[in-house]
Specification:
- Two copies of one chain form a homodimer.
- Chain A is α/β, with parallel strands linked by helices and 383 residues long.
- Chain A folds into two domains: 174 residues, Rossmann fold; 192 residues, Dehydroquinate synthase-like, alpha domain.
- In chain A, strands 1, 2, 3, 4, 5, 6 and 9 form a seven-stranded parallel beta sheet that branches. A two-stranded antiparallel ribbon of chain A has the order 7-8. In chain A, strands 10-11 form a two-stranded antiparallel ribbon.
- The N and C termini of chain A lie far apart (68 Å).
- β1 of chain A pairs antiparallel with β1 of chain B.
- Chains A, B: Pfam families: DHQ_synthase, DHQS_C.
- Chains A, B: This is 3-dehydroquinate synthase.
C-alpha cells in the first residue's frame, strides 16, 4: 500500500534545582530563569497555582512572591489561585475546570508560565491543566513534600482521577523547570516527612544497593528530621528517577515499565481506603508485601528481607493493612493484581527482588504465596 | 544553584497510507498493521469512534468493519461508538466525556487502539480523548474529508473548543498510523470537496510554486470531482504538511509557526459565523485577503494575485464575507488580528506572499491596508 513516512524526534531538556527560600530577595535564580527563557517582546505572564495546605503553613508565601516579582519588572505576575491539596483534589474535576478557566480569564498563553507550588496532587492537577490548555503552557513545578521532591515532581507525568481510577486522565508533559525548595519540608506533618521516604527505599531496592545501605545507616537521622540527610536522600532519589526516565522510554510508549516496585498493591490499597492514606504509606506497605513475597518465592534471602523490614520499623513505616488481608480468591488484594494486569494491557509485569539493589521483572504471581506473604506481615506486625 | 540536568529525545514514527476500500476483505493492510504492532500475549482491543455523517453516507461501513475483523481473530473488536461530526461536535464537552467513559467501560488500555473515522472535527475530538485517557491510548486516524486527508488528519494535533475558543484544550500527540481512504471522498457534499482544496492552495502559495501551477492547470478537473487529480493533490499536500512538521518544531515549543497563511482572519470568521462555515471556506477567504494585502503592500505582483483569485473562482471558493467588512477600528476583523497576537503570546507573526511559492513572516499589519484589501475583495466579488 502506498504511504508517506513521518519520523521525527522531539527533544526535552529541563533542570531540577535544589535550593532553600526560593522567593527570598537574595535568591534571584527563579526570576532569572524565566528572564533567561524570554523570547518575546512582551513580558511573559507568570501564573501561580498554590496548594492551600502550603499557604496555610507559609502565610507569608504569597506576599513574598509578590515582593520578589517587583525585582523582575520584565515579568508580569498575574493573580494567583489557591486550590485544595491531597489526593481528593485529583478526584474533583471542578478544580481542573477552575484552573483552565483562570488560564482563559488571565489570558495565559503558550509563552506564559503556569507555576504550581504544592504536594504531588496539586502538581499533578495543575500540570494536567497546563499541559492541555492551548496544547501546553510552559509549566514550572515547585514540589513541597518529600514525595514530590524526590519522585513525582521531577518526572514527566501529570493527571487527575476519573471514574474513581487513579490518573485515568493525564499526559506525559515535561516541565520547563523544577525547583525543589527544602524550606517547605520544615512544616510537613510527621506522616508526610516519613512516608515520602518510601519512594527512595523503592528505587534503592531495585537499582542501587549502596543507596539502600546509606538509608539503613541514616535511618535514625532521617526519622529525627535531620535536614542534611533528607537533602541527600531527595537529590539521590530524584537523580535515580530522572536517570530511569531518560534511559528508558520516557513517555512509556512501548512496554517499558516505570519504577513501580511495590506499587500494584499500593494502588489497590489507596483505592480501598478511599484515598484516605498517603501514597507513600501505601507504597511502604506494598514494598513490604513484595519483599516478603520475593523471600517466600526463593528469590530474596531472609537476611536481606529482615534489613528491609527493620528499615521500615526505624522510619515508622507500616508493613500491613487490614484492607489487604486475603481470605479467599475474591479478596480485594487479589482483585488488585487482576486490575493491575488490565492496567498494563493484558500482560502482568511485576518487579520482585533477587537481592537488595537487584530488581527482576516477573509476569506471574502466585495467589497462595501472596496470601502467605500478607499473613506473614500481619503476624509480624502484631508481635 | 545546585541542579540535576534532565535531557532526552522522544522519537515518533508513523505512516500515512493511501488506499481505497480499507475494510474490503481483499485489503488486509489495516488488520495486518495492528497485528504487526502486537507486543502482548492478549489480543489488542480495537475501538472505533465513527462520524455520524460518514455512517449515514456509508450505511454498510459498520457491518463491513465487523466482517473484516472476523478475518483477524488475533484482534478484539469492541462495540463501536457513533458521534456527531462538524465543528459543533468540538464545542460539546459532553461528547469528550462520552468517549472517555467508553474507554473506561470497554476497558480500553494503553495497548489498545482507538480508531477514529471521520472529518477533522471527529478526529480532533476523538484524538484528544485518546491522548489523555490513560495518558495516551494508541490512536489511528481514518480521515474522510479532503481537508482532513490533506492537512489536519496527517498532523500531530488534536483538541476541542472551550470558552467558545477554537482548540482551547488539546495536545500534540502523533497517531500510530493514518489511513487515507479515497473512497470516502465520493460521498462528500460539494462544499466539502471544494473547500478542502484551500489548504493545498495555502501550502502551495507559501512553499511550492510548481504545485501551485499544477493546481491552476488541474482546477477544472478538480472542480469536476476528478478522482485521480484529487488523489495527487491530497498526497502532495499531505507530504508538504508532514515535511513542515518534521523539519521544524513538531510540538511548537519554541516560536515556530505552523503553516497558517490566511488563517488569522479565517479563525475570526469561523468564530463570528458561529462555526456555521467550513474551515476550508474560511481559509479560502483568508487566503484571498492576505494575498490582496500582500499585493497592496507592494510584495506580490498583480499578475500573481490575479492567478490566485482566478483559481478561487474556478474552484468555486469565496473571497469575501460580510462579517469581515471593516467600518472602523473596532471592526471584528481588526479585533481578530489582536486576538491572533494574543494567541501567539504577544508578538504577531503573519505569513504574507512575496511571490507565488514564497511566504514571508511579518510582525505587523497595517489596519488601513487591511480595510482596503477587504473593500477591494468586496468590490471584486460584486462585479
Amino acid at each position: 500500500m502506498d504511504f508517506l513516512q513521518q519520523s521525527f524526534s522531539v527533544r526535552f531538556d529541563y533542570k531540577v534545582f535544589f535550593t532553600t527560600h526560593l522567593f527570598s530577595p537574595e535568591n534571584p535564580a527563579f526570576g532569572k530563569f524565566i528572564e533567561g527563557e524570554k523570547k518575546k517582546d512582551t513580558p511573559p505572564k507568570v501564573f501561580f497555582v498554590l496548594d492551600e495546605g502550603v499557604v496555610a503553613h507559609h502565610p507569608d508565601l504569597i506576599n513574598g512572591i509578590r515582593s520578589y516579582f517587583k525585582g523582575f519588572p520584565s515579568l508580569q505576575l498575574v493573580e494567583e489561585m489557591i486550590i485544595p491539596g491531597g489526593e481528593q483534589a485529583k478526584n474533583d474535576e471542578a478544580l481542573f475546570h477552575k484552573i483552565v478557566a483562570a488560564v482563559n480569564t488571565r489570558k495565559i498563553d503558550r509563552h506564559s508560565y503556569l507555576v504550581a507550588i504544592g504536594g504531588g496532587s496539586v502538581l499533578d492537577l495543575a500540570g494536567y491543566a497546563a499541559a492541555v490548555s492551548h496544547r501546553g503552557i510552559r509549566h514550572i513545578r515547585i514540589p513541597t513534600t518529600v514525595l514530590s521532591q524526590n519522585d513525582s515532581g521531577v518526572g514527566v507525568k501529570n493527571g487527575i482521577n476519573y471514574f474513581k481510577k487513579k490518573n485515568f486522565l493525564g499526559t506525559f508533559a515535561p516541565p520547563v523547570a523544577v525547583f525543589n525548595d527544602f524550606h517547605f519540608l520544615t512544616t510537613l506533618e510527621e506522616v508526610d516527612w516519613r512516608s515520602g521516604i518510601s519512594e527512595a527505599i523503592k528505587v534503592a531496592l531495585i537499582k542501587d544497593a549502596p543507596f539502600f545501605q546509606w538509608l539503613v545507616q541514616n535511618a535514625t537521622l532521617l526519622a529525627k528530621r535531620d535536614m542534611p540527610a533528607m537533602q541527600y536522600l531527595i537529590k539521590r532519589c530524584a537523580d535515580l528517577h530522572m536517570q530511569h526516565i531518560r534511559s528508558g522510554d520516557p513517555f512509556e510508549m512501548g512496554s517499558a515499565r516505570p519504577l513501580d516496585f511495590g506499587h500494584w498493591s499500593a494502588h489497590k490499597l489507596e483505592q480501598l481506603a478511599g484515598f484516605n492514606i498517603r501514597h507513600g504509606e501505601a507504597v511502604a506497605i506494598g514494598i513490604a508485601l513484595d519483599s516478603v513475597y520475593s523471600h517466600l518465592s526463593g528469590r530474596l534471602s531472609r537476611e536481606a528481607l529482615d534489613q528491609i523490614l527493620e528499615l521500615h520499623q526505624v522510619l515508622g513505616l507500616g508493613i500491613t493493612h487490614p484492607l489487604l488481608e486475603v481470605s479467599d480468591d475474591k479478596s480485594p488484594l487479589l482483585l488488585g493484581l487482576e486490575e493491575f494486569r488490565e492496567h498494563l494491557g493484558g500482560r502482568l509485569t511485576i518487579t520482585l527482588l533477587n537481592d537488595i539493589g537487584k530488581g527482576e521483572e516477573v509476569h506471574e504471581m502466585d495467589s497462595a504465596l501472596i496470601r502467605k506473604a500478607s499473613e506473614w506481615l500481619k503476624d509480624l506486625s502484631s508481635r
